[in-house]
Write a structure and sequence with these properties.
Shape: elongated
Number of helices: 0
Number of strands: 15
Helix content: under 10%
Distance between the termini: 80 Å
Radius of gyration: 19 Å
Oligomer: single chain
Strand order of the largest sheet: 6-5-9-3-1-13
Length: about 170
């Protein structure tokens, strides 16, 4: 068993067309001295944006446990996508050793054509029922797990422009 918490990530800005933007970070601390293995997570899109705004959702393990996302080093544990405002990640196994604290990141690619300047992407883990464990695990936390920050989309790209032909003017 252990405690879980949603934490805000320091670099919360998504540029349209960006890959691996960190949307959410949460940590799990084992307080029992026994290991806990997370095998499923469900997250909710709390802003209600179109699923096309963010794509290629990934749950990523913080390998060196420093709380900093390292795109070239931290491995992807599971992938998912939003459907009906929910994304489910399963088929994974993330073990937190007894007495240890570990972090997990939710990253996404910010659409170059659908996400708009000023959109604020956000996700939460709504309740303890949205976490699945391999072994019986008592979980303590404040629900929902919410980092409190939203990923502001910054940018306007050429992919968002639509060109309409205009007939030539005649004199």
């Amino acid at each position: 068993g252990g405690a879980v918490a949603g934490t805000r990530h320091a670099a919360f800005v998504g540029v349209t067309g960006a890959t691996n933007a960190v949307v959410f970070r949460f940590e799990m601390r084992d307080t029992t001295g026994l290991q806990a293995s997370l095998i499923a997570v469900e997250v909710l899109d709390i802003q209600g944006f179109d699923a096309a705004d963010w794509q290629n959702l990934r749950l990523v393990k913080d390998t060196d446990a420093d709380g900093v996302f390292d795109a070239g080093t931290d491995p992807v544990l599971a992938t998912g996508f939003f459907a009906g405002g929910r994304a489910t990640f399963d088929g994974m196994r993330w073990t937190v050793p007894g007495g240890a604290t570990r972090q997990l990141f939710l990253t996404a690619d910010v659409s170059a054509t659908s996400a708009a300047d000023g959109d604020r992407l956000g996700a939460i883990v709504a309740s303890v029922q949205d976490l699945g464990f391999e072994e019986p695990t008592a979980v303590a936390g404040t629900w929902p797990l919410d980092a409190g920050g939203r990923l502001p989309v910054d940018g306007f790209t050429v992919e968002q422009l639509t060109s309409f032909p205009v007939p030539a003017a005649t004199a």
